[in-house]
Write a structure and sequence with these properties.
4-stranded antiparallel sheet, 15 strands, alpha/beta, binds zinc ion, binds N-carbamoyl-L-aspartate, globular, 12 helices, 378 residues, TIM Barrel
């Protein structure tokens, strides 16, 4: 990573149709710091489908080289054939000059067959299988009801095919407190799973607790890793209630106490190879967030890089940022690192209040707030 004090010409961020609160003016004077990073990838992303896909895909393609695309559509992507068709529609939705590559995933169900894993591997476009415990999160109703009872042959085939299992790590038992569901999942499902299949590659997605940090740190490098979202690095559960109920800070697993957030920040800024960037950017239209039974999911794709840079900058660990955004993920998946570069400039800018699309608008994380780091598009 190269740190310079040079200011190079930059293009304004390409936001399609954006509502700003006021003019975006930099208060920063003097030489501007720039970071040059190997182009990052997003190892946990929801691109949706239809008009929503067309609206949000360019935001990810602007900044990220590749993304692991989550399969929780309606209906879910449970077959390789469906993953191939979904991949085609994603490629149609990104700008023609973009080199963005979607890495597809399959949605694991109680009835997924080992043969499907072979097909997935042969396709060359499916890179992982996603475990949603049934009922744990958005569009998880077709997920797994009994992992050990129903899925062991598939998991064994995944070991054979070196196919990673990506995990939404929360139990769904209504008697378990929602803030404890990640820890209980580790103790009752993940730990036994890893003991039973030590050669299965597992990514604990969007970790939220110090328990998950410790669990991942104690695992075998190359076999156990975690993705980390901007919200779980920057917000504690207080953010759900600050000045009134804040639906745009609601995601699953739900934000936790600040001590957990601090543990996650320490883990990612330590330089460990086991943690990598996964935004979990999960767009829902405003009317589906600001309503009596609002959806879980935070839209962060357009601002995620600024937010990760903020975290590493505030921790005095900018020298560790590039491994987290651009090396640890491809190294874990056994994929080449990107060769293109991206620049971030330290220059304050205001996050749009919303992104407007013909079908409605989407409110991003940190809407209307001022951030310091800004990706420059070339
Ligand atoms: N994170 C979320 O709160 N929501 C995600 C699903 C998920 O990743 O659990 C979504 O698809 O909206
Ligand atoms: Zn999830
Ligand atoms: Zn997700």
């Amino acid at each position: 990573m190269i740190l310079t004090t040079l200011v190079l010409p930059t293009k304004a961020l390409k936001f399609s149709s954006v509502k700003f609160e006021g003019a975006t003016k930099s208060k920063y004077r003097g030489p501007k710091m720039e970071l040059t990073l190997t182009q990052p990838d997003d190892w946990h992303l929801h691109l949706r489908d239809g008009d929503l896909l067309k609206g949000v895909a360019p935001h990810s393609a602007n900044h990220f080289g590749r993304a692991i695309v989550m399969p929780n559509l309606k209906p879910p992507i449970t077959t390789t054939a469906a993953a191939i068709a979904y991949r085609d529609s994603i490629l149609k939705a990104v700008p023609a000059d973009s080199n963005f590559t979607p890495l597809m995933t399959l949605y694991l169900t109680d009835t997924t067959k080992p043969e499907e894993i072979k097909l997935a591997r042969q396709s060359g476009v499916v890179f992982a299988v996603k475990l949603y415990p049934a009922g744990a999160t958005t569009n998880s109703q077709d997920g797994v009801t009994d992992l050990f009872g129903n899925c062991l042959p598939v998991l064994e085939e995944m070991v054979e095919q070196n196919m990673p299992l990506l995990v939404h790590g929360e139990v769904t038992d209504p008697d378990i407190d929602v803030f404890d569901r990640e820890k209980v999942f580790i103790d009752t499902i993940l730990q036994p799973l890893i003991q039973r299949l030590p050669r299965l590659k597992v990514v604990m997605e969007h970790i939220t607790t110090m328990d998950a940090v410790r669990f991942v740190e104690s695992g075998k490098e190359g076999y156990l890793a975690a993705t980390v979202t901007p919200q779980h690095l920057l917000l504690s559960r207080n953010a759900l209630f600050q000045g009134g109920l804040q639906p745009h800070n609601y995601c699953l697993p739900v934000l936790k106490r600040d001590i957990h957030r601090q543990a996650i920040v320490s883990a990612v800024t330590s330089g460990s190879k086991k943690f990598f960037l996964g935004t979990d950017s999960a767009p829902h239209e405003r009317r589906k967030k600001e309503c009596p039974c609002g959806c879980a999911g935070i839209y962060s794709a357009p601002i995620a890089l600024s937010l990760y840079a903020k975290v590493f900058d505030e921790a005095g660990a900018l020298d560790k940022l590039e491994a987290f955004t651009s090396f640890n993920g491809p190294d874990f998946y056994g994929l080449p690192r990107n060769t293109t570069k991206i620049k971030l400039k330290k220059d304050s800018w205001k996050v749009p209040l919303s992104f407007s699309f013909p079908f409605g608008d989407i409110v991003p994380m940190f809407a209307g707030e001022t951030l310091e780091w800004q990706p420059c598009l070339s």
